[in-house]
Amino acid sequence: MAIYLDNHATTRLDSRVLEAMLPWLTEHYGNAGSATHGMGRLAREKVEEARADFAECIGAEPREIVFTSGATESNNLAILGLAARPGRRSAGTLAQGGHVLTLATEHPAVLDPLEHLERAGCTVTRLPVEPQTGPGVPGRVDLAALAAALTPATFLVSVMLANNEIGTLQEIPAIARIVHAQGALLHVDCAQALGRVPVAVDALGADLASFSGHKFHGPKGVGALYVRRRERVVRLEARQFGGGQERGLRSGTLDVPGLVGMAAAAGVAVAGMGEEVPRLESLRNRLWQRLSARIEGIALNGPKLEDRNARLVNNLNVRVPGIDGQSLLATVANVAAAAGDDLAVSSGSACSSESPRPSHVLLALGLGEDLARASLRFGLSRFTQEEEIDRAAALIARGIDQLRNL
Ligand SMILES: Cc1ncc(COP(=O)(O)O)c(C=O)c1O
Q: I need a labelling partner for 211 at 20 to 30 A (CA). Which of 111, 260, 269, 385 fits?
C-alpha cells in the first residue's frame, strides 16, 4: 500500500483540476501572447478568467495577481523586486543599505534571496521564534520583539503564514499593523496555507503574498504573487526580462494549462475548507494518538494540537528521543518495504531532505541537533484515509522499536 503523508512537500493533482486543464493542453494550445489570431486570443481570455478566479479565492483584484512558476519565484520576485525598486522607502540603492526583517524559521526560498540582498549591501535581521519549551506558542515570533527590531530603514518584513515543517501559524494581521505603522511593507509566504486556513489578503494586511499550485492539489511549476495595488500601491522591479508578460514583471510565455489548473485547484480548496478542515484535524489527531500510544517518550514539535489558531490542521511533527536520527527515515522505509508498503514521510522540508544538516526550523525551536534529526514531519491531505494513518503509525512504531533494539 502506498501511504503518502508528505503533503507539505507536494500534493496529488485533483482529478477535477486535471479535467479543467486538459483542453488547454490538447485542443487550445495557443500562446496567450499571440493577439493576432483566435487561438491566441482564446488563451488570453482563459488566462484572464483564471486570474479573476484565483484573485477571488484570496480576496484580491485580478490586476493584483502576477503568475509565476511557484512560491520560490514569487518569494524571489517579491523580495528582490522590492529591494531593487528605486524610490523605495529606505536609502536609494541597495548598496546604500536598507533593512529587511524576517524570521529564522522561514523557507529557504525567503532566507536565500535575503542572504543575496545582504551580500549586496542590505541589513537583514532574522528574528528568533518562541522555543519549544517556552511559555508561548512554539515557533511564533514575539510581536514586541518584532516591533522593536523595525528601524527607519526597514522597507520590508517577510513572515510566512503557516510553517511548512511545524505548522505554526503566525499572527499576520497583528504583524501587518506593526509593520505598516512603521511605514514598511509586509510580504507573506502563503504557500502552505491556502485551503487549510482562511487566506484573504485584506484581512491579513499583506502587501505581497506568495502561492504555489502544487501545494493545494494543483499542478507543479505554477504559482502566483499577489502585489497590492490599492491604498498602499506596491511597485516592484522585474527580475526577469523578455516578452514583457505579466505587466513586464515576469516575462516568459504563460503556462496556460498550469494556471488554469492552479485557479481550479484554489477554487476547490477554498470551497471545500468547511468540510475538509475538521476531517484533516481529526485524522491528524488520530495519527498523534496512535503514535504516542505506541512510542515511548515521543513528543510534539511545534504548537499544541488543540490550539487551532496556532497550528496548521494537516501538520504533525514529532521527535523521538534516544534514537539515531541519521537512520530514522531509512529504517522506517525499510520496515515499510518489508511489509510491502511505501511510506512517504520526511524529516523536514523537501528542499533540505537530501542534505545531512538537521532542520533549521527545529534548531530555531531550541532542539539540539540529535533531536532535530530524530524528528519526523507529516503532512495530510484531502486524499488521506484513516487506514493509511493507522498503518503508518504501526510501521513507524515498528521502525522505532528496531532502532531502539540496536
Ligand atoms: C512555505 C514555503 N514557501 C515556498 C516553497 C517553495 O514553493 P515552490 O515549490 O512552489 O517553489 C515551499 C515549498 O516547499 C514552502 O513550503
A: 385
